[in-house]
Amino acid sequence: MIDLNTFAALALALAIATPAAAQGAPIPSDSSWEQVHWTKIHGWCMATGFFILLPLGSLTARYLRAYLPFQKWLGPHAAIQLIALPVICIGFGVGVHVAIYNGQWKVPHTKIGLTLFLMYWIQLVLGICTASTPSVALGNAKPDPTAAPDARHPLKARPWYALLHAFWGVSMCIMASVQVRRGYTIEWPMKRGQPASEHVNRAWKAWVVIVPVLYLGGLALLLRRQWSQERARMLNPGAAPANHEKYDSVATSSPRIESKPV
């Protein structure tokens, strides 16, 4: 089980350490290689964190939540975000370091990057709040035999920040795709003096097709199953969650509401 307090403490520590790391030793003014070196590190870290790991975390939640109990799909989802956290912080720190040296605070790439970084911390807070708030629909609430069945749609049973967490994450993935492309088509040629490899462009094109197809495919194939499970939990709030089973048998075996003849 993920310790949310530990996760929050680590996130706070990295948030404090990142600006300090960005104020490290200055880049030698007589060496263009240093510019290329630090720009490459910044690009790889931010692309790995925002463009690869965050979408993978979203896809993990999208597919596993339809088959596994809350704590079992939350673990892999949160673990991927935890791996992305230091990678993004390192990339951001290096980016700030380069921006300070070059005076690039007013260029669009820097503004979008700063916006993404701030959005990322808001997303972490939204995720921690969602995971720590008991919800019968999500399956992380304690069984309550005295609770009345809830016939609302599962979306209406979620707190507002849980819905915002999902839309915020998708928005970040879209922005990150644009930002990565701007990085290797505009910023990198300015530092390196030559365009990025065509392999980079092909990889970007492939990834921006693969991720939406997998995500939308998961919605089309599994969203009805997910809502069916959540409705079943809401109609039977006194049932114990199946935390030790591969599938959420409580959700799949609970009775459904049948319409009464008028």
Rg, rounded, reads 22 Å
Q: How many beta-strand elements?
A: 0
Percent helix among the residues?
Answer: over 70%
What is the number of helical segments per DSSP (H or I, 4+ residues)? 7
Question: Beta-sheet strand percentage?
Answer: under 5%
Unreliable stretches (pLDDT < 50, length at least 5) are 7-31, 243-262
The best one-word shape is: elongated
N/C terminus separation? 47 Å
Main sheet makeup? none
The CATH class: Mainly Alpha
CATH architecture: Up-down Bundle
The average pLDDT is 82
CATH topology: Four Helix Bundle (Hemerythrin (Met), subunit A)
Q: Order of helices and strands, N to C?
A: HHHHHHH
Structural overview:
The protein is mostly helical and 262 residues long. It has a single domain (9-253), classed as Four Helix Bundle (Hemerythrin (Met), subunit A), CATH 1.20.120. Helices cover 71% and strands 0% of the residues. It has 7 helices and no strands. The protein has helices spanning 4-22, 32-64, 70-102, 108-132, 160-192, 198-235, 249-253. It is elongated. The N and C termini lie far apart (47 Å). 28% of the residues are buried. The model is unreliable at 7-31 and 243-262 (pLDDT under 50).
